[in-house]
Amino acid sequence: MREPRWFGADGELNEYADSLLHDPGGDVGRMAYSFIAIQQFGHRYRMREFYEKTGLRWADVKAGFELRKKRYGLSNAGWNLFDRANGRRAARAYRR
What is the pTM of this model? Predict the structure, then answer.
């Protein structure tokens, strides 16, 4: 019999994501924070509730995507993920 998948207690995801901003911190921590958001998309939250349910902050997710864009560029899949994280509000203007 399979065990239920463990996602942690309420607030633990946010605590872990916040810890990445300090350890390792810097650019690496901010980019890692954006990958946490990407991983959470699989939970199929509605975008209007995504940040409320996960405890993640758009400003930190955006900072991680901006660093990834600057360092590595974003593939089409990366842009799609950014659009989803952004709720598609300003993604078109950001791409320029």
Answer: 0.77
